[in-house]
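Wed. Picked up where I left off yesterday with Type II secretion system protein K. The coffee machine is broken again, so keeping this brief.
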Amino acid sequence: MIMKTHGRQSQRGVALLVVLLIMALMTMVSVNMASRMFVNFDRAESQIRYQQAYWYAQSVESLARFGLEESFGDDDTVTLSQPWAVRDQIYPLDGGQATGNVYDRQACFNVNGLRDIKPTENGTNPALVIALQQLIESQDIDSFEAETVAAATWEYIDINTNVQSPLGVEDSEYEARPIPHVAPNGLIADISEWRAINGVTREIYEKVSPLLCAIPSNKLVVNINTLTEEDAPILTALLHPNLSEDQAKQLINERNAVDGWKDIASFIAEPVLSGLSDEDKEKLQKNLDVRSRYFELDTEITLDSTSLRLRALLQRDDNGTVTVVRRRFGGMSERDPDNKA
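Structure written out below (tokens, as returned):
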């Protein structure tokens, strides 16, 4: 009798262990299923928020296009006093907000303007290549490095595969790199591609790229009415050696705050530019203007914990119609990190 009782107790102990083991296994499975379910819920919510942010961004883009079409009068002059140029506009949304800025993409040095530049007869760099060199030097870059980068930029974008300058390089240089590639010998799509050009170091890119742009045009035309004091080196480079950076800043600061310059003739008539030769004045007519055709919308949509950034390049035609040239999603917004707003 004692042995039978002991056997039953042993069996009951084993059965209890089995039950506890099954319960532990079921608990683990339940926790895992619940965890996966919550992950799927979060994923679905994130996708919904992203879609909402995407369509809100499209709406901001449409608003920017409308604003540009309504901002300009019959004279077609573009200035920073017009509605499109209001900075850091905020639009409240259900569960978040949209922030947006529109920038003039002709208030910068368009590197694609070097595409059709022809070499000079005496072997020196063309005027616009020298202007790019001066712009790079203005950001405390060594003169030799600046000349190398300017020449390499010209060779990278020009329409042939021949080396046309002493410091220029073509496909053979890029094919020998750890990640081989060739020069596009044509327009680049975004100024970030400038980083791939021979001689463009991280330091040079970070210092100079804010003054550069890459719009889909083979013309370098800068709107003098939308330049800010920070853009003075662009004006100085184009007018080198006839204008210092301090003089350029003075010109910009004393510009009519509302109407700007009505035309290039009124700009050239400024006393500080009285020393320009007729040849220099004729060249300026090609590279300066008071109108703009390209703008960029930079908007960021925030919905709860979801953020979406859209950068859209907009083109305004002769009839005043604004169309989208390209869109770029993602990336970090160029904001002051100390700004808590």
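Quick read: The chain has nine helices and nine strands.
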